Amino acid sequence: METTNSIEDRRHRLDILTHCVTRSSVLALSSEQQAYLASQLLQDDLKALAFGITSQNVVAHVEKHLQLLPEAYARLIEKLPGLGRNRGGTHPHGNRALDTLWNLWLPLATSLAAKQKEIARPFVQGILGGQGTGKTTMAIALSEILSCMGLSCIGISIDDLYKTYAERQQLMEIDPRLDRRGPPGTHDVELGIQVLDRLRQSTQSAIEIPRFDKSAYGGAGDRTTPENIIGADIILFEGWFVGTQPVDPAVFDHAPSASLKNSSCLSS
User: Fold this and answer.
1) Which residues pair with 238 in a beta bridge?
2) 206, 199 Cβ separation under 8 angstroms
3) Which of 36, 107, 29, 38 lies closest to 68 in space, CA to CA?
């Protein structure tokens, strides 16, 4: 739960950001307001560490983020209209969206841009999360912000790598547990590796990005017409298995019973 001070800090921060967005210019802010935003960024040690923000570079970070803020916010509200809804707050521009943009999406986007510049080739960033956690929303937000920075971005979901309907029908004959798409084994891993490798090679030839239509075959889904692109500076690869490692099958040889696991959960 937020303390009184943290609530007051958040309101003050949103007042400043809303002023910047409505005036569409960083020049609308005073030096005191910018200094306040800088001090706020340094208060959260873990966040500052994650985004490489230090007392030496925090002013540059604030200036960069403020320059991007008006255009990035306008693009996101157009792309994702639901973000602009005021959910009980006092700010007309959807305070949750503005807060998330400032605290997460802007520093993350500038961090990705810095990494891409450092390696001087297309950079692949994985986004891991369960269903409904905001993976796709984050990918859209990052893509729009990076576009404001002059970088091309392509989003790929692990869902785009499902095997075809025909291939999954064959899988079901081998293992009935694979009757629905989603579990490991229903994705074309080799196809994913090939696509990501081609994107990382920064080729100027057209690259086919697989796309998947979940409505096909009554909701069973099937591969649809691929999207052709000419490379990208940053590739956002999102999915609920991205980055996970396989578990040794031997672990399941002596797995605890379901009742035992439930009782341990209840007692914890």
Assistant:
1) 127, 157
2) no
3) 107
Q: In the structure encoding, which two tokens stand for residue 58, read together?
A: 């925090």
**Tens of pLDDT, residues 84-142:** 555 444 444 447 788 899 999 999 999 999 999 999 899 999 999 888 888 989 999 99
Residue with tokens 């949103």: 14
Structure tokens at 122: 């297309």
Would the pTM count as exceeding 0.85? no
Q: How many CB atoms lie within 10 A of CB 250?
A: 7
Q: ∠ at Cα 155 (228, 202), nearest 5°?
A: 60
Three-state SS annotation for the chain: CCCHHHHHHHHHHHHHHHHHHHHCCHHHCCHHHHHHHHHHHHHCHHHHHHCCCCCCCHHHHHHHHHHHHHHHHHHHHHHCHHHHCCCCCCCCCCHHHHHHHHHHHHHHHHHHHHHHHHHCCCEEEEEECCCCCCHHHHHHHHHHHHHHCCCCEEEEEHHHHECCHHHHHHHHHHCHHHCCCCCCCCECHHHHHHHHHHHHCCCCCCEEEEEEECCHHHHCCEEEEEEEECCCCEEEEEECCCCCCCCCHHHHHHCCCHHHHHHHHHHC
Q: Are strands 207-213 and 222-229 parallel, antiparallel or unpaired?
A: antiparallel
Question: Residue 128 pairs with which residues in a beta bridge?
Answer: 239
Distance CA 109, CA 127 (A): 13
In this predicted model, what pLDDT tens digit does every residue of 49-89 receive, in sequence order?
999 899 999 999 999 999 999 999 989 988 887 765 554 44
| Gap between the Cα atoms of 223 and 216, Å rounded | 9
Instruction: Compute the distance between CA of residue 65 and CA of residue 264 in angstroms, rounded to an integer.
Output: 47
Cα separation of 50 and 43, whole Å? 13
**Tokens 């208060």 belong to which residue?**
43
